[in-house]
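Final report, section 2: Outcomes. Of the targets proposed, Cyclohexanecarboxyl-CoA dehydrogenase is the one most frequently requested by collaborating groups, and we therefore present its record in full.
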Amino acid sequence: MNFAFTEQQDAIRESVAKLSADLLAPRYRQRETDGRIEREIVEMLGEMGCLGGELPEEFGGSGLDCVTSGVIIEEIARGDFNVGYLPLLASLNGQIIAHHARPELAQEWLSGITAGQKICCIALTEPHGGSDAANLKLKASRQGEHFVLNGEKTSISMADQSDVAVVFARTGSQEQRAGGISAFLVPMDLDGITTSRFEDSGQQAIGRGSIFFDNVAVPADHMLGDEGQGFKQVMQGFDYSRALIGLQCLAVAQQSLDETWQWLTEREAFGQPLAAFQGLTHPLAEYQTFVQAARLQCYYALWLKDHDRPHTTEAAMCKWWGPKLAFDVVKQCLLAHGHTGYGEDLPFAQRLRDVMGLQIGDGTAQIMKNIIARQSVPR
Ligand SMILES: Cc1cc2nc3c(=O)[nH]c(=O)nc-3n(C[C@H](O)[C@H](O)[C@H](O)COP(=O)(O)OP(=O)(O)OC[C@H]3O[C@@H](n4cnc5c(N)ncnc54)[C@H](O)[C@@H]3O)c2cc1C
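The predicted structure is given below as tokens.
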């Protein structure tokens, strides 16, 4: 076993951490107010090789491994959790496009995504339910050289900031369930596409919304992979994104812990620094332990992916534990800051609102536990 990061990974961590502290953290709150992420930031991340770095170099990747992509998302999310969505979406969608699009189509879009010039969202969930994704209804009907899409996707992150979407649609019958689903790469400026934005409690800089498809003609060669294979493709991609999401959330937890340990040395009560009171230090010590363990679990899942080993169960563990733990940690850190922690001058309240969303997005804890149980119950 080797728990050390490589020299290259340490160097990447250092440079992304600096960018995150200098440019991302100071505008974390402002991006919430603006309801968007500045395109200059997206382009800067692209220029630094932070978007889809593990993708093949012919598609704009930097030849990195998935563990290094974990390092990048962790450091970005330390400064601004929401900006962490950019490497997450680039990696999740990038893998699907790189593996399943025609090479020319992949080339056309991935070079823009990895350069930070294009944003790609993923559109799976529908109004009638997200957990039972194999039951989706958005219809794609073949008409000559096109598939015509009709229906609604909902709860889509960055729906109104994206240039292109990976969309899952039904090309077969409802009874075929997963086997009747295909994936398409859909430019968001096609005729018949409109979007809406929800009023959410958190992740305002990302924004969630619906995408409506009204007779949208998508070229048939924009299908990703084979007809009826879309569902299988997305599930494979989610194994990767779940480990990244764990790190994205745990980074916020670790940043909050670091700030709170410092605060305990600065604030005094009853003539002593708060650090003298075990009622404050012991909960933080427990959370420090849990965060370290959960973080190792995420890097383990990424290491398994890098070594082409199965990691569905390990990734599901990252996805339910990371966001829940991060929420609990941030809450404890907010409380340790007393009345100032509750205010918006400090980032804890926003962090709570933001990380909570990923207890649902990309699959809920119950669904993750179903996956773990399915693999664990002896047959
Ligand atoms: C912040 C955020 C970002 C998101 N981003 C995207 C995105 O970019 N793209 C996208 O396609 N979707 C996205 N989603 C949607 C998300 O994937 C779904 O919300 C999620 O899969 C759950 O679906 P649902 O909300 O329809 O809940 P439902 O499926 O209706 O479930 C409701 C409740 O029942 C529980 N439940 C359902 N079935 C079972 C079962 N078998 N056993 C135990 N419990 C069960 C669920 O865990 C949940 O608590 C996002 C959601 C959020 C909150």
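Residues 7-118 form a domain with the Butyryl-Coa Dehydrogenase, subunit A; domain 1 fold (CATH 1.10.540.10).
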